[in-house]
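Chain and backbone:
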Amino acid sequence: MNSFNATSYNTQAARLLSKLTSDFYAQQAQSFSATRQAPWQGWQRCLDSMPAVMAATNLRVLDVGCGNLRFARFLTEQRNIHPTAYYAVDNCIPLVQSGSADRQTTVMAVDVVDSLLDDTLAAQLTMTDCDLVVAFGLMHHVPGMQNRAQLLKTLLDKTKPKGYICVSFWQFMHSAKLAAKAQQTTTQALQQLQLDASVLEEHDYLIGWQNKAHTWRYCHHFTNNELADVLASLGPQVRVCAQFSADGKDKNLNHYLVLQCV
């Protein structure tokens, strides 16, 4: 079996897990997009906590891990918010192209995790600072606590003074059904990939897709203690506008942070 240092999360492990996730989206872009059309329940609550964004006339948005652009559609089609510039960042262009972009949208092919590991992410995000920066459904695909912390810092650095940043943290283990599936597919994936369990940190899982063979993506479940640590690490540069749980039958599958740069 491949062996990894279980005490310090290393770049080799992170790259391997990132490649699993990238391969998953490259192979399953169409089927994944087909199941990801409706807006998330928590998005409106995010907007409600940012009245300045709702009223902005020259709104610039950065959407990191944009997927099939459904947040962009939510803004324009359901909330009648039309950004003057919308920067859509993802490394799976077929997934982005499965959505619909308007002429204000600039699509940027960037592998967020690999760029974090290479320390090039900030340099690749070449747009000027934005009024609103969002990362929905992304943070759980970033292996390693330090890498997630660096991503959050980079997003804050791309947010204008008085601008807002919204981040979601998946808590799939709150669902008994998802938890059982995550545990089962993680065991299967480690066996089939011939990986030692030390490739994973605590609360890391390899999740399958529609019972397809050899199809896995890396996902991290965020505990409440981890989220408290995230907030504690932000320091005085941000103001917490809102934090809440939403989405799913029990409205607890995602935890949201809405921050304002001061």
